[in-house]
Amino acid sequence: MCGIVGCVAEEPVAGVLLEGLRRVEYRGYDSAGMATIEGGALEVRKGVGRVSEIEERRKMSAMAGTIGMAHTRWATHGRVTDENAHPHTSCGELVAVVHNGIVENYGQLKKGLASRGHRFRSETDTEVIAHVVEEEYRRSKDPLRATLSATKKLKGQYAIAVMFQDRPDLMVGARKDAPLIVGVGEKKMFLASDVLAFIGHTDRTIFLDNREVAVLTKDGVKIVGPDGRSVKRRPTQVAWELSDVSKSDFAHYTLKEINEQPQTVVSASIQETERVEAFARAIRKAKTLYITASGTSYHAGLLMKFRLNKEARIRAEAVVAGELKEHAGFLGRGSVVIAFSQSGETADVLEAVKEAKKLGAKVYSIVNAAGSTLARESDGFMLLNCGPEVGVAATKSFTAQVVVANLVVDAVLGGRHSNGSKELSEAVTEALKCDGQVRDLVKEYMDRPDFYFVARGYESPVALEGALKLKELSYIHAEGMAASELKHGTLALIEKGTPVVVLNPTGGTHADSLSSAEELKARGADVIGISDAADDVYRRFIRVPKVQPKFTPIVEVIPLQLLAYHAAVARKNDPDYPRNLAKSVTVK
Ligand code: M6R
Prior knowledge:
Elements: E1 3-9, H1 14-23, E2 31-38, E3 41-48, H2 51-58, E4 67-73, E5 88-89, E6 95-103, H3 106-115, H4 125-140, H5 143-152, E7 156-164, E8 171-176, E9 181-184, E10 188-192, E11 204-207, E12 213-217, E13 220-224, E14 230-231, E15 236-237, H6 253-259, H7 261-268, H8 273-285, E16 289-293, H9 295-310, E17 316-320, E18 336-341, H10 347-358, E19 362-367, H11 373-377, E20 380-383, H12 396-412, H13 422-431, H14 435-445, E21 450-455, H15 460-474, E22 477-482, E23 499-503, H16 510-522, E24 526-531, E25 540-543, H17 552-570
Parallel strand pairs: 16-17, 16-18, 18-19, 19-20, 21-22, 21-23, 23-24, 24-25
Antiparallel strand pairs: 1-4, 1-10, 2-3, 2-4, 5-6, 6-7, 7-8, 8-12, 9-10, 9-11, 11-15, 12-13, 13-14
Helix pairs in contact: 3-4, 4-5, 7-12, 7-13, 8-12, 9-12, 9-15, 14-17, 15-17
């Protein structure tokens, strides 16, 4: 959940690092810091707060040195304090480390190190790594061997960048179960948690594999496997561009990403037929079929499950990734797991697919980040093609996931998948026109303590998504549920003026959802209808265009995303960086 960026170059690197740090800030934003080596001295500047605040106070960009690394933290071990911010150094300031992950045996390691005279300045597991590497380095005098031996002592997950005060010519990186990517530039090499950190400097990347260690100099990279043997890996090119990581004229990334969706639905639908067919074949052949994901991606997975069950008559279980192993009674040889993940690095998802593979299942994934761990560990994958999603709230990745899942289900049903969808794109453009209405809604309801979202059938996961989005961005308590469930308990919470959003496209469940809306109104709720057809029962109504039933979640989610965004802004929250959260949840 933390962001790492490191660089070895010919010129000073602080500016490049600060730029990279800002781009990976979405991964964690409770504290940040930078370390460089200049004139034989290792300097660290760090502190609590957002990158811009720390830059203001500590002037990281003024640090000298042609080698450096930076980190943005999402606290796991140790409180949010200046001392706990990364980079961490060993006692003799010989070694500096930044880390993403959790060292599970840090307590035990720390005891041993303390008994050998090491003194600690923070409460973090990361500082322990610096001391372990230092011990190894004093023994071997070899940065690569020292890092390799040190990582063998670590239990848990890690992506680390390590600098050695007496070796300003090189930086070492290592990973296990957390992403770490090498960026190969001209006389400028990068180590980062995400390619976004160095886009604009190079598009040539090497995705490190688990337990590999890389040594970077300004001229190149040497990679070794866990046995210390050299690994040959050619750089691959990433398709993302610099313009993808700017906010353009939008106030926030989240708003930009919401507004990109007319394009998202087109680019997500451009897929190689053979890949779609491979997914479809695997689904048809599967003895048992599971769909797994977390958060918003899980909601997209629920939609796929619905269509597979109802239209294709294929039994699919959808289970949140963090719970998959508890539901694995029917997972084994012949099973197929479909994993959805924007980042492809969500720890719960990676753990779930690892378990599934152990049991003999095949894994097919739908991811946004090419080269991500999930994509690489899957038997087949399809990309969302929606460009980087920087806002912590998943918006365009959700619509892209629905588009891709639909292509797969259509192929299972025997239909040919269509490349591009003008009709859908126009419908999304139309749906986005509700922005003004949503702002009015926010004016009226932004101070309400609770919000409810209800729907039936295929629409139900969208109700869950509406609630998740509102909670995470506005911090208003929200619940999403099947409208049929209201009378089994939740109606007791409905009072005069309680806002309840009813998602109700015409078709299948329309009449039943109208009845639910009436029940809600009778108990005093302010019913907010989102539909292609107005009705008197709605106190407020947002019209979305009529689309094919498989696309209704896409047009309905737009007002819900805008609602969450505008509520966040109205309540003075930062919609791009909601409190306590991080974009890629790379810890369990
Ligand atoms: O990268 P992933 O799709 O695997 O992420 C899964 C969830 O962490 C993510 O969707 C999260 O729920 C979002 N912040 C919701 O907006």
